[in-house]
Amino acid sequence: MAPSLESQRPTLEDGETAPSKVTIVGSGNWGSVAAKLVASNTLKLSSFHDEVRMWVFEETLPSGEKLTEVINRTNENVKYLPGIKLGQNVVADPDIEHAVKDANMLVFVTPHQFMEGICKRLVGKIREDAEAISLIKGMEVKTEGPCMISTLISQQLGINCCVLMGANIANEIAVEKFSEATVGYRENREMAQKWVGLFGTPYFMVSAVQDVEGVELCGTLKNIVAIAAGFVDGLEMGNNTKAAIMRIGLREMKAFSKLLFSSVRDSTFFESCGVADLITTCLGGRNRKCADAFARSGGKRSFDELEAEMLQGQKLQGVSTAKEVYEVLSHRGWLELFPLFTTVHEICIGRLPPSAIVEYSEHTPKFSLLDGSTQLY
Ligand SMILES: NC(=O)C1=CN([C@@H]2O[C@H](COP(=O)(O)OP(=O)(O)OC[C@H]3O[C@@H](n4cnc5c(N)ncnc54)[C@H](O)[C@@H]3O)[C@@H](O)[C@H]2O)C=CC1
Ligand SMILES: O=C(CO)COP(=O)(O)O
């Protein structure tokens, strides 16, 4: 079991609330940076317990050592964020139940495909007063329809869940280059502000908007557009084509989000979680990078193979998200409304060549929304 770091804080006076305890569920590239951000703040803010526990999906490194042991010895996640000190108050814990049991603020940040299993393991294991935030970009598709990851967490664990998304390439934030992020909340503005306080630093500016679905869908859907941008890069089609793909992609992101949730606000697309994340991911993200290599191979190499070779354990979200969105579009008869999303999936599964990305995304949708008061694009 991972060691504990005792807080030196004095005992509580009457009426004083106990400091919040934070656990990070996940320890990949972004998960490790999230731990670093949070840990720098819990040391400074008296409303938080100093220690930040980080659940690590345990693995054995080529040296034969366990990843958690190395993180706790070196204060670095040598596999997913090498060269960056996380902060001495970050404690890596391979036991998920132990990691969450005392926490009342849970930060979920794993690749989205693992969340259903993680939630199942956590049912009945967390504090009743726990609050959650999801940094996960992705969705699940169930027989009854699409389910955002924050909803999965809320429903399975019976707790509130905000989201934090933004133009946040983890390696850049790790070295403290300036960036912004957006917290999406449902009703509890005070809780949203607490998350803003927990994450915000002078180099990581966080603001809150009352639009959980809008913020989460922005973060989720931009990964499909990043795959399209990678195809365009791999085909060496130039900046104008890539900008066109980003514009069409943004238009489909907005339309899809509003079709799923009429509450989604236009203004959310102008926050960091919207256009800014779309731009940074299409320029410098992992989805873009692997899609570029896929197109250069003429679609002959699989994404699974490229992911394993190029990302060394890190995970792509865009390919599975394209499949999940395709299922929703197909089930609801919306495929023709979303030529870019549809084409990305069909290229990923080898049904179309990478060059189809421009041929298809030029098509205009054949029909507009059934509700005549809303324009799709
Ligand atoms: N890396 C980045 O720059 C950013 C990532 N995100 C999002 O954050 C989320 C997490 O991504 P990263 O932290 O980058 O992870 P990552 O892709 O770097 O790492 C993969 C993680 O999955 C874990 N894992 C592998 N198999 C597992 C299993 N069976 N069960 C549970 N965990 C398993 C690994 O231990 C590792 O921690 C994703 O939704 C991603 O889209 C959001 C913003 C920036
Ligand atoms: O979400 C990200 C930046 O905000 C990272 O995108 P990638 O997963 O494509 O690297």
List keywords for this structure.
single chain, 377 residues, alpha/beta, two-stranded antiparallel sheet, 10 strands, 14% strand, globular, binds 1,4-dihydronicotinamide adenine dinucleotide, binds 1,3-dihydroxyacetonephosphate
CATH class of the largest domain: Alpha Beta
First and last CA, distance: 53 Å
Determine the CATH superfamily of the largest domain.
Answer: NAD(P)-binding Rossmann-like Domain
**Beta-strand percentage?**
5-15%
Bound chemical compounds = 1,4-dihydronicotinamide adenine dinucleotide, 1,3-dihydroxyacetonephosphate
The strands making up the biggest β-sheet line up spatially as 3-2-1-4-5-8-9-10
User: What do we call the CATH topology of the largest domain?
Assistant: Rossmann fold
Oligomer: single chain
Find the structural class using helix and strand composition. Answer: alpha/beta
Uncertain segments:
5-10, 366-374
Helix content: 40-55%
Order of helices and strands: EHEHEHEHEEEHEHEHEHHHHHHHH
